[in-house]
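Predict the assembly for these two chains.
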Amino acid sequence: MIKDITIGQFFPGQSFIHKLDPRAKIVLLIVYIVTLFLCKSFFSLALMLAFAITAVLLSRVSPKMIWKSMKAIVILLVFTAVLQIVYNDKGDVLWKPFENSSFAVTTGGVYAAVFLIVRICALILLTSLLTYTTSATLLTDAIEKLLSPLKLLRIPVHSLAMMMTIALRFIPTLLREIDIIMSAQKARGAMLDSGGLGQRLKALTSVFVPLLVSSFRRAAELATAMECRCYTDGANRTRMRRMRFTWRDLVAALTLAAFAAAVIFTSFYPIAQTLIFQPVIT
Amino acid sequence: MERKDLLSFQQVRFTYDEEAGTRPALQGISFTVKEGEFLCMLGHNGSGKSTVAKLANALLVPDSGTVLVDGADTKDPEKQLEIRKTVGIVFQNPDNQIVASIVEEDVAFGPENLCLPPEEIRRRVDDALKAVDMYDYRLQETYCLSGGQKQRVAIAGMIAMRPKCVIFDEPTAMLDPKGRRSILGTIKALNRDFGLTVVLITHFMEEAAAADRVIVLDDGKILLEGSPREVFSHTDTLVSSGLEVPDTAKLCYELNRRGVPMPADVLTEDEFTGAFLKLLKENGA
């Protein structure tokens, strides 16, 4: 169960997507998400999904990993789809359980459900692609750069970015530790998998207290090791990899801009909608 | 040519918590480490050997006495950064020394702190990874590696900063026999091929065999000092200070004493058998 968590996983590669400037990737992702929520028609949604799928294909990340990240949200998708179908009563009636029932499956409900599913899928697809193709260090470096204006407000941007790097680095380590502690406590007769909710929560303290203690020890040792490696406040650190805005970023930005323009055009101009969806009758 | 002293402890005393009245960790010890030397510091748990590492790197400063690193006094806060550039430490648990998720990014952490230009960092990272034989793993995630590989990454992270001396504080204590051998091999190679000054702190006697000189610590005092051969011969003293002399070393020592020319740096039973068979062949048996 614990091993299935894929947050912050990274698959090294040399693809177009891997070589994009991480700062550009973050900004483009934000623009993409905003555009995704501006979509009003199936046509625009299909455009956005096509963009996401193209990006995934370009990245050459294995479809298996993509599926792994999608698997986690299947329940959420089914749940929202059912809610939409049950509660949305706009449009034509498609099916009724019996005559005069107040509940009916309508075209509006089905449309809304499909719309939501596609939207969430596209969102997860591109967001996981960001972490799959960008190492944690580059990602936090990029966030640090993007947030650097906040330094003027005396917000310690560098320290926050460093904390994020370390947090991401320790996720797998701590997950493994939880596994070990749980096994150790089970071996001593802790009932972690049985009993009521209250009992289980109580049993979990026997896992989290040792985890907390060992985390503090780890933190102290890590701090010593970092000091040994001449880490001070980090204000003037240089970086091995320079982030550069290249032609690739320009191509990616222009492509997304074109897609966004098409989405906004088709979603907000009724004329465009009729042009695309209803053949003009002469 | 007389090699100069890189590290020098003079009558160093140190107590962790004086008010609590704990026993001093170090009770006035003096020793020096010469440039290019491979020194092994032996001692059981609580003998003060880890304290020595932290004092040499200005993580701690002595209560009395002086620690000189390449001529600089560790008490001088101005020189602290210079001292840490000269002397690096590799600790016991590799998991708690690795800062970044990707191998090469972790190795780059130290050089980045030294504010070097990117090209120079790249060069040092590649060199360091090649030196510890981890270059092929440079893009791997650190948590996927074995304990021995993680420790090698930690060593690369240290030597990428190009220190003159690296102190290894029980680097093999958390590893399996295979990992231990590979780390020891790496440490020996760094000393031999790159002229790195090495201080290896350990409680495994057999690891001391490869060193130029051995210092045995007991209760914050120096108990024995000399070549591995000399030190191993004091079997009684070593056993009374809680250190176990490895069987193969004991056997080699005894054979040597009886006139059989066995090499002194035999670590495992396999090596012993190999060396012994070779000896038999040479004598035409």
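The interface with chain B takes residues 8-10, 12, 135-137, 165-166, 168-169, 172-173, 176, 218, 221-222, 224-232, 234, 236-242 of chain A (CB under 8 Å). Residues 19 and 92 of chain A are 48 Å apart (CA to CA).
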